[in-house]
Structures are given as C-alpha cells and as structure tokens.
Design a protein that fits this description.
- By secondary structure, this protein is mainly beta.
- The chain has 2 domains: 94 residues, no CATH class; 145 residues, Sandwich (Jelly Rolls).
- The protein is 11% helix and 37% strand.
- The strands form 6 sheets. Strands 8, 10, 13, 15, 18 and 20 form a 6-stranded antiparallel β-sheet that branches. A 5-stranded antiparallel β-sheet has the order 9-14-19-16-17, with no helix packed on it.
- β11 and β12 form a beta hairpin.
- The N terminus is likely disordered.
Length: 252
Amino acid sequence: MKKNLLFKVTLVVCILIMSTGIVAVGASLKTEIKAILNQEIKIKYNGIEQNMTDVNNNPVYPISYNGSTYLPIRAVSDMLGVEVEWDGKTQTIMLGNEEIKPVSLLSLEYKSSSSSNKAADKGSLTVTGDLGSDIVYKDGFSYTVWNGNRSADIRSAFVVTLDGKYNRVSFDAYVNAGEEHNDKKYTYYVYDMDTGNTIADIEVENGQIKKVEEIDVTGIKKIGFAAQSNVYFDSKPKAYFYNPIAEFVIED
C-alpha cells in the first residue's frame, strides 16, 4: 500500500511541477501564455476512461502548451485518491494528508456517564505488575461493572469523538475485583456510537493487564467503551482502559 501511495503522490507531484513550471520564467514569477484547452485528449486510469471535473462538478480538460500536455491537479488528485489543499496566503498547493501522530483519547473530546469516568488520581492509575513493582499509567478512564454480566450498555459508555481522523485505537485493559475473584473474567466492549455496532469485544482476566492493540476504527466518528463480567456476582469493580491512544496507521 505504501508503494501504491508513493506512486500516486509522485505522479501528482510531477503534474504539479509541469503545471507550475510554465509560469516560473524570467524575472517575473507569473508569465502570460497562450495554451489550448484540449477536449480531444482522453484520460484513462487503470484502463478505465475518466471524466475529470472540478469541485463544482464541471468538466475540466487537459491543456496543450509548447508541445507538452498539462493536467488539472485537483481533478487528477481526486482520481488518484490523494488529498489536495490550496493555501492562498502562502500560495501553496499541499498534497496528501498531514502526518497524524498518536494521541491520547483523553486529549480529544470525550463524554463520561454515571458508569464511566476519567481516572483522576494517581491511585487509580497505579497497577501492581507481575514482578510486584508498581506501574503508573499516564492517563485512563474506567467503566463500573455495576450489574455483573448485564453491566455493558452503550447508553452509559465512555464516548470519545474521533471525527474519522484515526484508524486504530489501543489501550491496556485491567480489572481488579480482589483475589477472591481471580477466577472471574470480563468482557470489554468497543462501540461505533453512530451505528450502535460492536466493533470489538475483548476478554480480560481479573488482576491481569491485557494489551489491546490496533482496534480498527476506520471512518468512525464517535467511539464508546463499556465492560461487564462474564457471570453475575455481587461486586462492582471498575474496568480500566489505561493509556488509550488513537493513531493513523499506513499498512504495508
């Protein structure tokens, strides 16, 4: 996929260079030229003929000038699936997505509920590891398993707004209901809040840290988190989602 994306970006950059090079002549940065708007030229992409249009869906055509053919960059970028933006202040054409670095879900817009809250103190962010030493997480949130195996409810989920900007979510899952419940297991749920669909369910053992990596959230605008025990018992432990992050991953 990286090679395909590189090919697309390279092709569009070449078109940009050809298109802008004709005005960078002599002392002036702009030079008036006479060119032919050539409707006879056909454009094919992967063997399929393309009808190029502008942002208002009006037809656009190649330009012939001085023995060369130039293509409209926005129409070509749309055809290849490469984003293009124009910055009028700096007179800059920008191709492709800006790099999106991993971010904490708690740095985005979020909404808690009567069952879910941000972990606000060091004590709730501290877990004893397998070797007996404390692990202190940077941030996290919790969902109270308030009704055993009927606790998970999308209506009381911890909700984070992704706005479709990310395609992967990861976190560390942890529940500690006490040693007397070491035989208990829990299920963590991740929801698409707009469709109501469950996009992931993860089984977690009591007292054990489980790394949950790269849940696919491509195109999702709002994501929700909840949890419940796998059997009913009279306890209300908190299911923690530690160091929750969102990122945009380009796969090979």
